[in-house]
Amino acid sequence: MLRITLDVCASALLVLGVLASDNGLARVPQMGWDNWNAFGCDVSEDLLLGTAEKIVQLGLQDVGYHYVILDDCWSAGRDDNDTLVADSEKFPNGMAHVADRMHDLGLGFGMYSSAGAMTCARYAGSLGFEEKDAQTFASWGVDYLKYDNCYNEGQTGDPLTTFNRYKIMADALNATGRPILYGMCNWGEDSPWKWAQTIANSWRMSGDIFDTYNHEDVRCPCSGDEGINCALPGFHCSMANILNKVAPFVDKGNPGAWNDLDMLEIGNGGMTDTEYKLHFTMWSAIKSPLIMGNDIRSMDAPSLSILLHAPILALSQDPDSTPAYRRWRHRNAPAHGAGPNETQLWTQSLSGGDRAIFLLNLGDENATLSTSLADIFFDSGGARSDEAQMNWDVFDLWANRMSNEVAGQVVEANSTRGVNITSTYFNATEMSWADGLAANDSRLIGQWVGQMTAGMDWEVEVEPHGAMAYRLRSVGGTSRKRDEL
Ligand code: GAL
């Protein structure tokens, strides 16, 4: 029955000739897991199915992680009919079997290919075979395509050439009649944030992330304000590098079409807990897809408590929030990545008139950061704005993180059931993000830590490489104007 409904919807979309970003998918940023960051080419049916089961058992599915994405290195080439064939050693039961098992668990299945003659690891690519491959993916029951950029045979270098190459696959996916989320992965080449919204659900805006906080590396040559005109995306990009690179064009992400800051590194061991919290906070606030990249089968407690943290996930999954943007950056910075004394303020508009703020200390020493309502509401007129005259309750978004003890119990029990997690764990299948936020659910809005009023400075000490994240909620409603106060 469900299947019939899906097919009918998809056919209707097809008749209307809709664009990929109108395929009804990724209205909020997609969430899931991809094997690449932790496993590279070491892929198998066992890995995918074992991970999928854990995603369900550890409560990750119920906070929104949905797609299990198989990355590069899965194929054995093409058969006599030019149809892609799965490597039978890695996938002895074929891809449709993997997809079926994912669907049985209520998860979506993601697949990988490249808009080139070969994938980046030199397996068969889809350039010239787009329709055939889209049909193959659909016949296997694939729900998501990550589409890379290697070996594109020179069909790159200007926006229209790249747009046209990626549009062929967008059209081919739509023509299958199956809703397939389309994640472009051309590393920001030819500035996809300027043109990909009508064909893709997301686009990578940088070279590959590397599990490091702020590492200068010539293989990721562009950073910060230079990122806009970056001709060579490179790889080995640090988290701070990507954060600064996306800052000028965060607003290009919209429902159905998002800037993809690349997969999460939480749990992979290259950053500290503080740095991983910053990573998770900003990827959520900027509304990047949230694709876990660690070994879920050997999840540790601190990583789980970050990945499940609802007050931050609510920034991403709030249907009415917009991507956070950087209000200011104070720095004593080198050309690449973040500077030794760098601090930043980011703000995000949330549903119901709430506002999130993020005070970042990207430097190496403790720093006291300060902001005010005039600063936060600069765009609306600063000190003269209505918002700056209102009183705002301030909620700390990290104060009520699940303890290591409780997260450890979930890992140990292999289940969220039977563990006392009700004060910190938000099951988004029982109540939607929108309803939870409207109901002031404390698991979503964070812990009250004070009030901001007109003219007051909000000062806080932030540890190195750390972020203080707050939700501001106006006291007495969002429509109060100056003369009502
Ligand atoms: C890169 C891509 C990575 C991964 C890899 C596989 O181009 O950015 O995320 O998919 O290829 O070879």
TrEMBL record:
Residues 341-414 form the Alpha galactosidase C-terminal domain. GO terms for molecular function: alpha-galactosidase activity. Keywords: Disulfide bond, Glycoprotein, Glycosidase, Hydrolase, Secreted, Signal. PROSITE patterns: ALPHA_GALACTOSIDASE. Its main location: secreted. It comes from the Eukaryota. Residues 1-20 form the signal peptide. This is Alpha-galactosidase. GO terms for biological process: melibiose catabolic process. PANTHER family: ALPHA-GALACTOSIDASE MEL1, ALPHA-GALACTOSIDASE/ALPHA-N-ACETYLGALACTOSAMINIDASE. It catalyses: Hydrolysis of terminal, non-reducing alpha-D-galactose residues in alpha-D-galactosides, including galactose oligosaccharides, galactomannans and galactolipids. Its EC number is 3.2.1.22. Hydrolyzes a variety of simple alpha-D-galactoside as well as more complex molecules such as oligosaccharides and polysaccharides. It is found in: Secreted. Belongs to the glycosyl hydrolase 27 family. Pfam families: Melibiase_2 (PF16499), Melibiase_C (PF17801). GO terms for cellular component: extracellular region. SUPFAM superfamilies: (Trans)glycosidases (SSF51445), Glycosyl hydrolase domain (SSF51011).
